[in-house]
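Input chain follows. Return structure tokens only.
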Amino acid sequence: MSFSAKKSLGQNFLTDKRIINLIVENGKIEKQDIVLEVGPGTGNLTERILEKSPRELIVIEKDSRFINHLNNKFGEKIKIINDDMMKFSFKNYYDKNVIIFGNLPYNISTQMLVKWIKIKKLNNFCKKFILMFQKEVAERIIAKVNTQNYGRITILSNWKMNIEKIIDIEPDCFTPKPKVKSTLLTFTPKNNFYDLKDTKSLEHVTNIFFSNRRKMIKKPLKFLFKNFDDISNKLSLDVNLRPQNLDKLTYYKICEYYENSIN
């Protein structure tokens, strides 16, 4: 059975068997693992995941066209949830240490990533994320300080997770072909990360800094702190620097001062 991709859902079906194998191998699935696949579509990746015999495989698919197809193809081997991954609550899995696979629609990929980052005990929830992004987005996630791609999503993603780039993926690995290249990244939640009270604080701080990345950091510091001189002195900040010149740890420290200032 063939399905046409819905542009409104950002669908591009991965068909290249070599890439599918590579994705599954990077999950390092063991027999006791619970696996979550978001956006299985026609089930090409699902089929290969099942060959690794995980304890349980749950797939979350928004497009109801695929539900009967997946049921017919896999039967009771998988649990199918017909829901929007952006609206779905992962609470029932917070202590399951799942492995998550996702060929995320490009229009919601960073939103979905931030949704997962907001989970408080991320290392209890997920053992590993194996996610595909538009190459341009992936480059922002793994960007180095002092580069053009370095920004909010870099700082947020690397706060709680170790990230590894696996491979760039050509458009002809998909049907239909997207207009851009893709990149496969793996995310492993950290057991220890900088202690902040709320992800929303870090979102707010980085938004203030990067809303105008060409401006010197004196302006966002003044916006966030009445005593911005004290903060800049404590952190030995040169207020003439630009937002992309501050490393991730500095942003976590600024966020900690910000949280203390509002409580």
